[in-house]
């Protein structure tokens, strides 16, 4: 329905960031990788963020 699409289109980046900040705790974010990696170097940027 058009009303549903209009509601989705009305969502702003600020609204998404506010919701993310209230639900996501950066201290609790975890990352898992799987593969034949010889080192974590390719992932250092993600791990340090």
Automatic annotation (TrEMBL):
One of its GO terms (molecular function) is metal ion binding. This is Uncharacterized protein.
């Amino acid at each position: 329905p058009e009303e549903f699409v209009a509601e989705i289109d009305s969502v702003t980046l600020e609204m998404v960031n506010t919701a993310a900040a209230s639900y996501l705790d950066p201290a609790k974010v975890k990352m898992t990788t799987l593969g034949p990696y010889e080192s974590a170097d390719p992932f250092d940027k993600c791990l340090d963020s």
